[in-house]
Structures are given as structure tokens and as C-alpha cells.
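Changelog-linked ticket: adenosine-5'-diphosphate example.
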Amino acid sequence: MTKKKRRSRIGIRWQLFGTLALLTVVFIMVLWVFQIRLLSYFYEKEKFSEMEALAAELVTNADDEDFLEKVESHAREQDTCIRLYAAYDLEKDIVKAHSAADCVIHYMTESQIAEIYELAEKNGGTYDRRLEIRNPMHGEGDEDFRLPMIHPRSDSINAIHARMLEIGGEDYLLILDVPLTPVSAVTKTLELQFLWIAAAMMLTALLIALIASHIIAKPLADITEKARKMAAGNYEPDFSVKTGYREVKELAEVLNHAASEIGATDRLQKELIANISHDLRTPLTMIKGYSEMMRDIPGENSPENVQAIIDETTRLSELVNDLMDLSKLQAGTQKIAPAVFDLTATVRDTMHRYDTLIRHEGYRIEFQSAGEAFVCADRVLILQVIYNLINNAVNYTGESKRVVVTETVENGRVRLSVADDGEGIPPEQIHEIWDRYYRVDKVHKRSVMGTGLGLSIVKGVLEAHNATYGVESAVGVGSVFWFELELCEPPTEQE
Ligand code: ADP
């Protein structure tokens, strides 16, 4: 990652602030539209419906005796101006309740009342009108409804609701009037308030972004710093963070785990190189020593010394071969070539290799077979597995010098186990013996021993075959190494 690239990316802080600021803007806009832009609309709508409700209530009480008092008392209670006219005489009102200031109905001429009456009649009995009255000094008002006597004071907007009603068979006209308070003054105050609220919210957004980003970004920056150290080869960093969100803590835990795993692999790698170099050096030193001795000391050119050199060379090539096999298996370049073969016969063949050991050193290697057991696997590699397991059993068996190889067939599978009665493996080390170069007690009992790679080759081969394998071992009792392969149909005669 170049420095330039890193700088061009937006950090959590600004991204968070951007999101919060956008949210604030949207929120303020929505509020602004509803609170300021649509305020007068909602307010006027509300006023008209209030008047309508009042008029409807009065109409239901129209036949009451105290109707006229009721009109007056309602006008007072609801701050509304009300006038009542008889249809036959629109010149003279019957009731003139003058409760609210700035009512305009009191200035209406007979012809205007008659016009309202007509409009209400046409409209099915009711008529709503929003009247804008302007002082001529301030400009034009409601053109088609000029009041002859212009409202004496300043400009005003009035809501007029007219309703026809019947009292004792006669038609009447009820006109209600509520002056509408101009909302512009209110909206101005609100607008200013909104500006302050917006500024305060932006500041809060910035503060939240700063705090939240500190909680997120700080531990992330710490983790990045430690990850850099890890990349430089320090596998000990402690990624754990004290503060931060759950996700950051989880990331830290995963990185801690990764660091310890990489650290362990790194240690194993170093150990491996040390072990390999040691194991290569030992036979080489011996070969060099013997050869120099044979060159320099007359009479040392004996067949025994030559044999010693040959033995060391054999060990050396065994080690190199094992290393090759293992690296091929681990790199996945070792292709298994499955073929059908009889496992029993293969084990028997392997047994012959131990004839000398049996004859000269008193070992007893028994094989309890299960008759024919055909499997489909790479014969050469499986042979290597059997050989490694028996070799180990021979190497680690106890005083009895007895090794038992058992073959059992069950549920379409064949199980081969190699048992010895040696010292066994401590339970805490049982998982590690499959690792390269792992040795339980680092000191070999027999001088002609394995390379320390045997079981990792066994593991590699068996895993490449998808075979199950394992070991049961008890300290002082012995160990049983086993593996299982699926049985196959035996090959037909022609094959
Ligand atoms: P080595 O060449 O040391 O035998 P292996 O990979 O074959 O290497 O085995 C790894 C280790 O597992 C051995 O060093 C030994 O400690 C342990 N081990 C393997 N087989 C046996 C066994 N049959 N009994 C006891 N320990 C065993």
C-alpha cells in the first residue's frame, strides 16, 4: 500500500460524520417542510374544520328556545364571530356575536351577504371562503370580494364558513368568521430556530463521529501497527484491545490466534531446518571420518570400515528420500496412483524385509491376516505406510521384542493395526507425534533408527487416500497404530 493511496481513503471519522450530517440535513428538511412550508395549510384546514363543527352543532340546536343565547355563548367560548340572518331579510341580522377581534363579517354589505347566501345554496347548504383583506396602502387584497369599508386596521386573513339552516319552517343563514393569524411571523421564528437546531445537530454529529471513530479507529490503528510488526517477523504481538466494538474485539482475537499459529509454524520450520542439518551432518561426518582414516592409516582399509561408510550412506539416502516424499506429499505434487491390490499379500511381502532382524536379533513379528483383502490404493505408498509403522513398532517395542500386525475386515473396510508392548506414548504427546521431526524423548533406542519423518509420511499418505487412521497407546503398556481402507472388488481374471 503506497502512502498516497492510504491518504486518499476517507477515514471512519469523516465517513461517519458525513453520514450523520446527511441524516441531520434530511431530518431538518423534512421538519422544515412540515413545520414551516405546510404550517399555514394545516393551520387553516384546522380552523375551517373547527368552524364547520361549531356550525353543525348550532344547527342541531336550532329549534331550542335558547338558540340565540347559545349562538352567543358558543361564539364567546370559541373566539368566533357569528351572524345569523333570516333568508327573507338579509339586511338585518338576528344575532351579531362579536367575539373575536378583526372579524370582517360585520363589515359586509347586504349584497355580499346575499352573494354568500346564493353560493351556499348552490353548494348544497354550506360555503367556505378564505378572505384576504388588505389595507389599500399595502396593495390589492381579495379582488372579487372587496369590502366597501376596508377593514380599518392592518391586513388580515379570515376564514368564513356559511351554513343554511331551517328554524320553524323559515330559511336562515349562519355565517361564522375566524380571523387567521398570519403564520409568517411564527415561521420566521421557527426558521431561525431551525438554523440553530441544524447547527447544534451538526455539531453533535461531529462530536458523535469523533467519539465513535475514536472507539473504532483507535483499536484498529493499534491492531494495524501490531500486524505490521507481525509482518516483520515478530509473532508475539498481543492484539487484544481493551475498548472497542465486539467486531473489533473479535478481529483482535482472530489475529491473536493467527499470530500464535504462524509463530508455532515458524518455530517448527526453524526446528525442522536445525534437525535436518543435524541429521545430514552426522552421517556425513562419519563418512568423512572413516574415509580419512582409511586414507591415512595403513591397514584401516578394512571391509568393516567400508561397510560403515555404506551404512551411513544408506541412512543419508533414506533421510533424503523421506524428505523428498514428505515435501512432495505436502506440496500436493505426489499424485496417488490407485490400483486394486491385495493388502494381505502386501503385508506378507513387507514381512520378508524383517527376516534378518528376526533371525539375528531375536525379534518376533507376527501377522494375523484376514485372508484376502483387496483395496484400491497406491500400493507403493501404502507399502511405505506399513513399513514405517512396523519399523516404529520394532524400534520402540519392549523387552519382549514382539510386534503383532493384525488385519481385520468389517463393514466393507479393512483395518490394519501394528501393536507393540513398548513404553507407549504419553497422552499429551499423542497428537504431536504425527508432526515432522517430532520425537517423544528425542533419544533413540536403537542405533539404526528412523528419520523422525516416518509418521508424517504415514499421515500424508493416508490423508491423500482419505483413509482413517489413529493410535491407541498407554505408557508402559504399548502402542497400537492403525489405519483403515475401503475394500474393493477383487480384479477379474483377465485383468
Ligand atoms: P522416528 O524416526 O523418530 O521414529 P516417526 O515420525 O516415525 O519418527 O515417529 C515420531 C515419534 O513418535 C517417535 O520419535 C516416537 O517418539 C513416537 N513413536 C512412533 N511410533 C511409536 C511406537 N510404536 N511406540 C512408541 N512411540 C512411538
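Closing comment: Example verified and attached. The CA atoms of residues 40 and 46 lie 10 Å apart. The longest strand covers residues 156-167.
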